[in-house]
Amino acid sequence: MRRTSVDTYLLELNTRSEGVFADGAEDPHYILQSTQEETADSTRPIENCSGEPLKKYDLSRRKLLQVMGATTLSASFPIGEVRNSGVVDRDAPEMSRIPKIALELSRAGPYFATGTVDEAGMRRVKQLGVNDVLMGGPPIPWLERDLRALADKLKTGGLALGNMMITGFPKTLYGKPGRDEEIEKVQQSIRAAGSVGLPVIEYNFYAHRLVEGYYGETGRGGAGLTAFDYDRVKDLPPLPEEGAHDLEEMWKNITYFLRAVIPIAEESGVRLALHPNDPPAPLSRGSQQIMGSVEGWKRLIDIVPSTSNGITFDCGVTREMGQDPEQVCRYFGSKDVINHVHYRNVRVQAPNEKYTEVFIDEGVNDMHRVMKELVRQKYSRLIYPEHPRALDYDRERPDFKPYYPGGGGYAAYAYNVGYTRAMLQACLTTLNEISAGPSV
What we know:
Helix content is 33%, strand content 16%. Mean pLDDT is 82; it is low at 1-96 and 430-440. It has helices at residues 6-13, 61-73, 119-127, 144-156, 170-174, 179-196, 247-268, 294-303, 315-320, 325-334, 367-376, 392-395, 410-426; strands at 32-33, 47-48, 83-84, 87-88, 100-104, 132-136, 160-165, 200-203, 214-218, 224-229, 271-274, 283-284, 287-288, 309-314, 338-342, 345-350, 354-358, 382-384. The chain has 13 helices and 18 strands. Helix 3 (119-127) links the parallel strand 5 (100-104) and strand 6. The protein is α/β, with parallel strands linked by helices. The strands form five sheets. Strands 5-6-7-8-11-14-15-18 form an eight-stranded parallel barrel, surrounded by five helices. It has a four-stranded antiparallel β-sheet with strand order 9-10-17-16. A two-stranded antiparallel sheet has the order 1-2.
């Protein structure tokens, strides 16, 4: 009998086989993938995401439909348990794992491109087919009741909270007296996040962020782009409240921090994601940057080896540093420490020093290959198509306030989301002629 129910579908997704949705730890061949990428060679066989030829029985119409529907169904599937150092990892779907496209909402306050956590803001996100959101967190320490109220409010709009940014520990950054009190507040916040099922907490560890080097450029049709030039700002002096800090000092400070908070994150079932230095300039007002190189990213995860001690993989920053995002994604994905993803494109004139953030479809990054690698790694957390470009439609709004020079608003986010979903769907279907096979 040919089975079509969602219950049967879920059962099949959890059954190990050689087919499309095999989900064993040693079997990465779970998603169909066309081989007609960057080639006109039509004689090549259809392959899976690992580059191996697909068998005919892998290509039944039923399985193809399952793959095509995976992105829509994933938001409503129940949560499964994945063991990690004896704790439950709440963010692993029971189906074959795929990224969840997310947008940012503001908790409250001034203008934000996609809106705030109110009915209008939630409708804006939901209308783009996005079911997951991220946002900046409240002042530390976070309280369980506040996080639960926020998550419950989002649920009324059909949205799930998947990531919050934590800030407010400058003494920890600079190794000053009083950092232990700050770290205790961070620990309390992690416990609160774990108690409400928030899977990821993102953070930064800058001595200074060199945003002074950003400026606007004009792109296609007069659209706004965001550029960075280190020469403009390389001689800026340290700010009195920050000072200048060398690399080993910053490593010492983050090591102290991680050894205090990662055990709490593991106990709470929460993953931390450190965002790379962006811009990844060699010096930022006299301070060196621990996350301004892939070598720094690798050093970070070795301080406290744990899936709770991970990174935000930003394929834009990766390219800004002169690295190949596909290879970098493979390295960190294989270690299961990609805890959040920023998905954007860039053109680079000089690595780390001069580049332009462009439309997601026109930069140096091959965004399809980046997405394909995330799918290969079974990455299942949030992917944020950030840094929208400035479109006239957004700029004509009287309340338009871009976050960066050349940055955009809601219409540009809609474009980014559509492009990201197209890349995801391209990795979940075949582009060659599909030969129907027998049901399993």
